[in-house]
Structures are given as C-alpha cells and as structure tokens.
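Hi everyone, sorry if this is the wrong subforum. Our group has a chain we'd like a structural model of before ordering constructs, and none of us has done structure prediction before. Sequence below.
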Amino acid sequence: MRHHTSLPRFLMTGLLLLAATSWAACGDDDSGESSNNGGLLTGDTTGGDTSGDTRTGGTTDGTTGATSNATTSNATTSNATTGGEPDRVGPEYSGGACPALVDGVNSGFESGGLSRSFILDLPPEPNGAPVIFLWHWLGGSAAEIHNGLNFDDLSDSEGVIVVAPESQGSQFEWRFTQGPEGNPDLALFDDLLACLWDQYDADLDRIYATGMSAGGLWSSYLTLHRSQWLATTAPMSGGADTTSYQTPEVDIPVLMIWGGEGDVFQGGLVDFDETSKYMSTRLREDGHFVAHCVHDRGHLPPFNAAPLVWSWFEAHSADQTEEPFKDGLPATFPDICALP
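Answer:
Right subforum, don't worry. Here is the predicted structure as tokens:
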C-alpha cells in the first residue's frame, strides 16, 4: 500500500509558486557551465522493487514499490552477449521489443504512456560499458546539462555510455512529487536501462545517476527508489526531507554535492543545504556510505562537475564487497570534498 503524506507548508508554497511561474535564470559564468537553476522536492514514501539485485539489502518497511516495469526479464540471451547467461538480468522493456538506440538524439521512445526523447552518447566500444543517467534542471534541457557541464566528453575519454533524457509533462521537470507506482519518469529510467542492457549489454554493476537541482532531486529519488539498479549516485543540489525520504532497499554509496548555506531556491523557498544534509544524515543512519562535496557557488553546479562526478563513479561498482573510500577520499578529489 502506498503511504500518502501531506507536503510541508514551505514546500507546498514553493510548488504553487513554481506552477504559476516559468522560472529559469539563464547565463554563463567563467566555468563555461549553464547557470539555470530550479527544483523542489517531496513525495510519497513507497518502496521499490528489488528484482535483479545481487547486493544485500537495507532495512525496509515492507512496502512493495513500483509496478511500472522494474521486473526482470526471464530471457537469458536477450542482451548483446552471446557467450552464455549474464551474471545479472536487466529489467524488461515495457513496450516489448526495444527500438534501436543510436548515438545522438533519440525521439519517439515509448515509455510510461508517453513518447520520450533523450541524448545518447556512445563510446567507441559501447558493448559492456557503464552507464551514466544525467537529469537536467528546472527550465533546462538535456543538451544544456549534457553539453554545458561537459558530460559529453566522458563517452570518448572514459568509455562510458551517457544518456540525458528530456523531461515531459511535469511542472517540475521530473516527477519526484509522485510515488513510484505508475510514475512515468521512473518507467523511463527502467525502460532506458532495459534497452541499453538489451542492445549494448550495459554493465549492470556500473549504472550511475546524477543531475542538478530538479535533476538532483530526481537523482535523489532514484537513490531511494532504484538502489537495486544503481551502483552509486551523485545528486547535485538534491536531497530529501522528512516526507520524501525512505531507506534504500540495498546498500548504495552516495556523493552529495551542493553549494553550502547559499544553495537556496528563490530566496529560501527550498534550502538545498538543509535537504542535502538531511538526506546525508538519514542515509548514514541507515548504514549507507556518504561523502560530501560542498562548494561555495550557491545554487550552481560545482566547477568541473563532470570529472568530479566521474572520479566518484568510476571507483564504484555494485559487485564491490568493500567501500573504496572508507578510509578517506584520495588527494585527487578537490578540497571541497570530504567524509562527513
């Protein structure tokens, strides 16, 4: 059963204001990054599906989670490999046979009852590659976060598949105010992962998610509701609150990135310093490993966002038995990063 919760007054105020305005502060700074900002959070406290996972789970409240399409495929040869049964089986595409996913802009991808589009960056050798899901901010686009924060460089330099979806049909870009059941954005994640595994044998032990502001909140939502598929996440200006947090069902390390006390939305309607700290605290109380990167840029991405995020991602895999940074972050991380 889903548990419906009322929204805190300050969050409801922010949602109503955002619904009445189309807010996006556009501009460039000396980092070459787009400075569109925005976002909000809260949502139901429904659990997620743990099908297909090989990691040990955290504590749960017994909720069963989404029914969108997080079930696993029964086929053992539906992915790109031909040499035997894969170690893990990916989710099953809700539309039956996956359409061809090509390098560049893809459109007409049917998922959750909607026709979706996304940017797909394929490395020179995509078969068996890790995957980064990249979620844009309020008023932004896939191209802005993909190109503006230089995530487009990673496919060639690091051999990773990068997929940057476009939002569609939600006031706040991504449906982090909605529970998992019937959530079309959660279905989109499941379906894209299913087809990337089916077509390119995506490494199911190295699936990652990040995003900024509204995209950071959606990355946080995925952390809580899709930990069975994610090796780790790195929300930028994301987080959770008392109504949206739930314990991830399996162990998942998280890098929380935000802009310090100045990371607020529209004069304090949403305080990302508070939401980031709250999610970090709750995750650690529930036994998950968390690191922080706290910059001083307010509600903007950190400098060198793509290499920072990748330095965290590349060290993590879902099949690890030990946290690689349990004794501290290496000196290759910037000074803004530390263990809490």
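For your construct planning: The first strand starts at residue 104 and ends at 111. The mean pLDDT is 81.
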